[in-house]
Amino acid sequence: MLSDQDYIEKLPIITHYFVPIIDVTFNKGFSTSLKMTYQKSIWNETPSMKSYTLSNFRQLPQIQQLSEEKQFEMEVVGNVLPFKANNYVVEQLIDWNNIPNDPIFVLTFPQKGMLKPEHYDMMADALKNNADKKEITKIANEIRLQLNPHPAGQMELNVPTLNDGTKLYGMQHKYKETCLFFPSQSQTCHAYCSFCFRWPQFVGMDEMKFAMQEGEQLVQYVREHPEITDVLFTGGDPMIMKAKIFSKYIDAIIDANLPNLKTIRIGTKALAYWPYKFLTDSDSQEMLQVFKKITESGLHLAFMAHFNHLNELSTPAVKDAIKEVRKTGAQIRTQSPLLTHINDDAEMWAKMWTKQVELGCIPYYMFVVRDTGAQHYFGISLIKAHEIFKKAYSSVSGIARTVRGPSMSATPGKVHVMGTTNVNDQKVIVLRFIQGRNPDWVDVPFFAKYDENAIWLDDLKPISDEKFFFEEGMIEIQKNKLN
Ligand SMILES: *Cc1c(COP(=O)(O)O)cnc(C)c1O
């Protein structure tokens, strides 16, 4: 319940989000007798989230506007890759007059091209033949296993161990200073990004899910590793957690008074997909209080916000949510991969970074699409990625040039594509590690043969030696971990 004072303070927010109820009556399928009523959300005091997934997306009038063929395509792809949108995404972010090209539509609704033709046909045939659920799941899993579900050595190389030998499957520790923590209650999101590299977690490939129940093991691990300065809460989306549950983890960390710990990071897309988490949800004020508690304890709260497109920064709700989060002393940093069909546009990036700065956020990373899932659909050649980055970066104020990229999160580390040049009359790509499994690799420029088709580190070849300078070391690390 809001107190009167709260209510008065929130009045501008509440009236801002208010849109009158509109009932839309439409016919389901071809029959005129089957009338359904779809109710637009009321963006009032406490808007509630309504999810749209494979089981109910056809109820959306916006979807019914599309041809049956298009709806079937979405069903085929949605049976393989994760799919979840919500009423905020559908009603406030997607421009339904711009289908199929709307970036947020491509970001949240399945598209035919996301499956390779042979995979698409396999699933389409199964659905057309009314295959049973078991058969469909079997085909889906067969396809999924061919999509490199766990890239960059996440399972074999990044899972840490306590001194007593306990393996911590709910954590990843790849770079010295920062460990990732996957609370078991944050294994979903307010909506799913169609490009997400953690997609296997959301399609029921459970044995591949990272998750941890208790904060105590996290605290113990950070205690045993004085080199760790940052704990990064991730998932899924940690901001899917109720404030009560999130605060249990935070209290465990703060109460432990770990001298090496300086920063708590939260990797989240909630500002873009459900800003009401920080405005009107029943636990919104409590969540903001947890943030305050973190900053008041002397820890830095780094809110790592995913924004893939300028349109996600356009609603009154997201702007107000950013304000509320910043008021707690948290610093918002932003990141996104560069994605064909969604944001492969330098001008858009420049506008997005400028808007982020205007709203008090710090542009942080531009990533290269990872080698998993629908990489063939979203991927951009490294050369083109650098061109887009350079064009955008060179057109914004120095204040926005805090952003780094394009960067590949590959098995040995985060590799920055710095550009192209000539070495001994040979055209080359210039690279460097921003992060490395071995810190000695960081910030050493190295070259690869110029290749316009390369979309990932594995596609690149060194210019003279047989191997890149880090490859021997990487083999050593792999041997040590696996033995
Ligand atoms: C990107 C990343 C981090 C954080 O790296 P920063 O450069 O410090 O932001 C930590 N762990 C993993 C596995 C990562 O991919």
Description:
- It is a single chain.
- β10, α14 (346-358) and β11 (362-368) form a beta-alpha-beta unit.
- It is built from 17 helices and 15 strands.
- The protein is an alpha/beta fold.
- The protein folds into three domains: 4-145, no CATH class; 150-329, Aldolase class I (TIM Barrel, Alpha-Beta Barrel), CATH 3.20.20; 335-483, no CATH class.
- The strands form three sheets. It has an eleven-stranded mixed β-sheet. The chain has a two-stranded antiparallel sheet with strand order 1-2. A two-stranded antiparallel ribbon has the order 3-4.
- Pyridoxal-5'-phosphate binds at residues 172, 174-175, 178, 180, 409, 414, 434-435.
Integer average pLDDT: 90
Fraction of residues in helix? 25-40%
Radius of gyration: 23 Å
Neighbour order of strands in the largest sheet: 5-6-7-8-9-10-11-12-13-14-15
The ligands bound in this entry are: pyridoxal-5'-phosphate
CATH topology of the largest domain: TIM Barrel
Number of domain units: 3
Distance between the termini: 56 Å
State the CATH superfamily name of the largest domain.
Answer: Aldolase class I
Strand content: 15-25%
